[in-house]
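testing teh design pipeline on a random one, pls ignore if ur not involved
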């Protein structure tokens, strides 16, 4: 099924049928579940985006699509609707870390763990979110509402958990084996999992928790905290294909054009919507500064609205650097020259293969402190994390948000 095959009129016909039948009857008729991630907003009303796109198919091709027939899952449906000019919004899961912790306690009890306790004092200033026992082991569990997705945050978690492990071994439950666990409703790619597992820390992420919740009969309770994609059999194929292409793309001058095109495709998959499709290789008026591509930003909610308001980013500048080395100061200056308050704005992404060198890090700080320009470097590892997030229905901009927060708190 080719992407964008439905028409605007077929969507309007489907919205009319939805209104006539009502939400529950419409979804039951076509075999769709209620939307938890994306909703279509039309004339002030919200509709289940994936269901609308799938049923609209029948007006053009004489049958409705089943939920499993979208090659890119919900993102595929959203892309169709966005290209037809409909407004689609991401509905973030809304819960507190305490609520998530309480659910994990319920899950642990349901799955046979004993002596499950919350907010356990291990030592001065050190409290474990959950301590639980199985027949042979004691679990020391740190709960995060949002998965740590930057190097700094992952390192902080490793150090914190190691400290908790030392305290637990000294003060809790005698000589029984201690298992350190990070529990979070998100998902980590290899960049995040390797430092944790290499330090002996287990990861209870979204897919892990979803599977245990279904086995324990707690799917409805878990759905408040987990994206619907966690309960599906496999992540979106489009994300996996983009990860494979990125991992197989050699760095260096010979493949710079192919890498630019790949970065454009990745950016469109990750960010569109809410951003608009990339404008390819734009020149400024002086025809001096060539940007690889820009993404128009008309977002009126969420993270990208914040970026638009804070950094005057009506357009998000993106530059691709297919270098075998880490980018240096000169690449930061080059991108900074693209940015202006009354032009594209003061925000840019640099997609690069490995971590920037020290001169680039210093230049990024200088551009922010001296010129209010925010430049974020995304390495291959960052992009794989973002594609992994997107494939499971998580907002991939969380990586960028954490990077900006880490950067500004460190200035």
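output:
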């Amino acid at each position: 099924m080719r992407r964008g095959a439905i028409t605007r009129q077929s969507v309007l016909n489907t919205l009319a049928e939805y209104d006539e039948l009502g939400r529950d009857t419409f979804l039951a008729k076509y075999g769709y579940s209620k939307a938890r991630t994306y909703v279509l907003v039309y004339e002030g009303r919200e509709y289940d985006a994936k269901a609308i796109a799938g049923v609209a198919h029948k007006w053009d091709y004489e049958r409705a699509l089943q939920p499993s027939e979208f090659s890119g899952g919900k993102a595929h449906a959203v892309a169709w609707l966005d290209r037809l000019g409909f407004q689609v919004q991401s509905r973030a899961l809304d819960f507190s870390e305490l609520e998530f912790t309480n659910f994990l306690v319920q899950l642990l009890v349901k799955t046979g763990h004993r002596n499950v306790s919350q907010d356990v004092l291990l030592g001065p200033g050190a409290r474990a979110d959950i301590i639980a026992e199985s027949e042979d082991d004691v679990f020391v569990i740190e709960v995060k509402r949002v998965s740590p997705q930057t190097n700094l945050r992952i390192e902080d978690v490793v150090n914190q958990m190691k400290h908790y492990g030392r305290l637990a071994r000294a003060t809790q439950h005698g000589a029984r084996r201690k298992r350190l666990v990070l529990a979070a409703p998100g998902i980590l790619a290899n960049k995040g999992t390797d430092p944790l597992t290499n330090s002996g820390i287990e990861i209870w992420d979204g897919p892990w928790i979803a599977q245990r919740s279904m086995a324990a009969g707690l799917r409805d309770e878990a759905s408040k905290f987990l994206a619907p994609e966690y309960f599906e059999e496999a992540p979106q194929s489009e994300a996996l294909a983009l990860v494979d292409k990125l991992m197989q793309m050699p760095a260096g001058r010979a493949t710079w054009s192919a890498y630019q095109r790949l970065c454009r495709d990745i950016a469109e998959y990750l960010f569109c919507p809410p951003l608009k499709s990339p404008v390819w290789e734009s020149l400024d008026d002086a025809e001096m500064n060539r940007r690889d591509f820009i993404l128009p930003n008309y977002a009126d909610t969420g993270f990208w609205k914040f970026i638009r308001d804070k950094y005057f980013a009506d357009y998000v500048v993106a530059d691709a650097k297919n270098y075998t080395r880490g980018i240096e100061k000169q690449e930061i200056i080059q991108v900074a020259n693209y940015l202006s308050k009354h032009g594209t704005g003061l925000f840019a992404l640099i997609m690069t293969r490995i971590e920037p060198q020290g001169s680039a890090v210093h230049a990024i700080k200088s551009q922010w402190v001296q010129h209010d320009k925010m430049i974020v470097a995304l390495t291959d590892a960052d992009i794989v994390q973002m594609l992994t997030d997107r494939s499971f229905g998580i907002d991939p901009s969380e990586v960028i948000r954490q990077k900006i927060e880490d950067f500004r708190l460190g200035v």
